[in-house]
Specification:
single chain; 0% strand
């Protein structure tokens, strides 16, 4: 039997048109950055690269991998992202699971305290003083511990765990499992979608963060990649303002501009590689987060 061709309606035309426009808006900056990273520094500095590369060169990537500060920042960012994600999972998942138990003393009180932190915070200065008082200033622990627990992620975990049939836990208890063993061996294997969502949220946020390192880290060898990229951007802008330096300033600005685009591409690769593996959990995670009762 021949399949009937779907009739294209005016609504379909509008939807596809909007989707195409959004694709151009999102895709053009990505293509432009990639083209600038492999184009001649002179072409990039003069704004001649509009879409496709001009004066193809890999000098930018060569400079990136020869720059010790970028490689150090790259390693630091990977360390901060991986460790903070693991710490976040270790504190958020058990908290969300505990809040589903009606027999936990003070459950409503702790839930209310978590909710308060979503609307009010002490601010930058009290947080800085607290970090300094605890001896965490200029230490990697400050970056890992600050923001490791998220009330929003905890509520998502609570909503997910509350939807798991209670009969599974009762069966595990009859078989002699302790609450911790039930959580590790029964609940967590059923929570792969939830874990994938929390990993995605925490890892992406930490990978793109730079304010914490900028405020709480003083040593250059502990700085994240984002702080290093910001420094390169500032150097390029300062070089352009050095009118008296002549050709040296122009050459310096060209190099920094090329290095900037190449570093941006290199910094984006890990997330582009990891995201496809977590994408299947993203839609389900959005549905989990839409209900917070």
């Amino acid at each position: 039997m021949k399949k009937k061709k779907k009739k294209i309606t005016a609504f379909d035309v509008v939807v596809y048109t909007i989707a195409a426009i959004l694709l151009l808006i999102v895709g053009y900056p990505l293509i432009l950055v990639l083209s600038n990273s492999v184009s001649s520094p002179e072409m990039v500095a003069t704004g001649q690269v509009i879409l496709f590369p001009k004066g193809f060169t890999l000098e930018g990537y060569k400079a990136v991998f020869e720059d010790d500060s970028i490689l150090t920042g790259y390693a630091n960012t990977i360390f901060y992202t991986v460790v903070k994600t693991l710490v976040s999972l270790a504190v958020t998942l058990p908290a969300g699971y505990a809040l589903t138990k009606k027999n936990v003393p003070g459950r409503n009180f702790f839930m209310a305290m978590f909710m308060v932190t979503m609307y009010f915070s002490g601010g930058l200065i009290p947080t800085f003083l607290q970090v300094q008082k605890y001896g965490l200033y200029n230490s990697r622990a400050a970056i890992i511990l600050l923001g490791a627990f998220s009330a929003y992620n905890c509520i998502i975990c609570r909503s997910f765990f509350a939807a798991i049939p209670h009969e599974l836990e009762e069966a595990a208890e009859i078989d002699g499992c302790s609450p911790m063993k039930t959580f590790i061996q029964i609940i967590l294997p059923l929570s792969k979608a939830l874990i994938g969502v929390i990993v995605l949220y925490v890892a992406v946020k930490q990978w793109n963060a730079y304010m914490d390192c900028l405020i709480y880290i003083q040593d250059d060898f502990k700085q994240s990649l984002q702080v290093v990229l910001r420094r390169i951007l500032v150097l390029a802008q300062n070089a352009l303002l050095m009118e008296d330096a002549g050709e040296y300033a122009a050459a310096m600005a060209d190099r920094e501009a090329l290095l900037r685009y190449s570093a941006m591409v290199v910094a984006s690769v890990p997330l582009l590689v990891v995201y496809p593996f977590l994408q299947k959990y993203f839609d389900k995670g959005v549905m989990i987060g839409s209900v917070k009762g």
